[in-house]
Amino acid sequence: MTEMPKRNTHFFVLDGWRGICALFVALSHLRVLSHVYGTGFVHNSYLFVDFFFVLSGFVLTHTYGRTLVTPADVRNFVIRRFGRLWPLHAAIFLVFVVLEFGKLAVASRVGRLGSHAPFGGAASPYTMVTNILLMNSWGFDPDTTWNGPSWSIGAEFYTYLVFAGVLIFAGKRAWLLAAAISATGAAIIATFSPHYMGASYDYGFFRCLYGFFMGLVLYEIYRRREAADGARRGASMREAAILLGVAIFVGFANEGALTLLAPFLFAGAVYIFAFERGIFSRTLSLPVFRYMGERSYSIYMVHFAISLALLGAGTVAGKILRLDMMTNIPAPGRPIAALSFGGPYAMDAVTVVYLFAVLGTASLTYRFIEVPARRYFNALAK
Predict the structure, then answer these.
(1) How far apart are CA 130 and CA 209, in angstroms?
(2) Where on the phi/psi map is residue 119: left (φ > 0), alpha (ψ -120 to 50), or beta?
(3) What are 310-330's pLDDT values in tens digits?
(4) Considering the entire predicted model, what is its pTM?
(5) 322: burial class by Cβ within 10 Å (0-12, 13-18, 19+)?
(6) Which of 52-56, 225-229, 342-346, 351-355 has the lowest mean pLDDT?
(7) How far is Cα 56 from Cα 58, in angstroms, rounded to an integer?
(8) Which of 1, 77, 55 is nearest to 211 (CA)?
(9) What ranges do the domains of the chain cover?
């Protein structure tokens, strides 16, 4: 790759974006009948995973674009990225295994929890292997399994390997090959994915290729514009416009062909905010958003377990107290069980508690799993 810009060594504003998007993904998986549940924006917040992919391609090109030159560089890069992703993934996977044993114990007393028997269906021994090997986005599994959102972690890790190969093979022309790979990923999603950008366990790897390598191309565009000291005038207006565009798009995209445009829209957001020159950039660079951004990976990885534990607790409490605390919501395939008691305002309170629980748990996993693992594997790479 060509010379990197010297102004930014770290994009704090993009950390803020990452943290907010992670919380919305967490909210989209919470089945609690609050005032926000089922709204278009929250329901479609699954699309923010594509923001993560685009952002990863952009940031990793900024960090490694000129340093991945030799096989030794690739080895060190893979060790670092493995240490960034796998330890927390493995730790949360073990939590799900423990929860499955808990289901086994509870089932003998109050009956089955969920749609399948403990260690059956999506929690079978076979899916344990695909999860440990980070191969849960290649279509080997029948559905999302264990820690459902972790399919994107597997997709991203193997995309890192492709990324390293592209830099080694293409050098300064990497952006051309990246554009071809991104277009190929988009074409596969458009042709074969039944839910377009809702692809996960089946075509999730190609969804990641589409967004990630768009991020690489985006960085080449950003680098040239930054070198020319561009994008200075009207920064706040551009930031406001792209924020409005993201809000409208996510609110109405649903799961149709329109979702194929998500990586383009998120690429626009990353590009505009990467210059860090508008009022919204300054806001997202505040310590509170940087705090969430630093813990965004933990937020993403822990939230699903907390949401399932909350639903499980509601189911058990309802059976013990003989209260109707759950309701079934019609959905394609089979009804969705959601927590509902005390009215929507009570569920709003549960939602707030959930978000604080996610952020608090993520802070613990960040401190005691993410940071030590990152230090260990970075030292190993050296």
Answers:
(1) 20
(2) left
(3) 888 887 777 777 777 777 776
(4) 0.92
(5) exposed
(6) 225-229
(7) 5
(8) 55
(9) 12-381
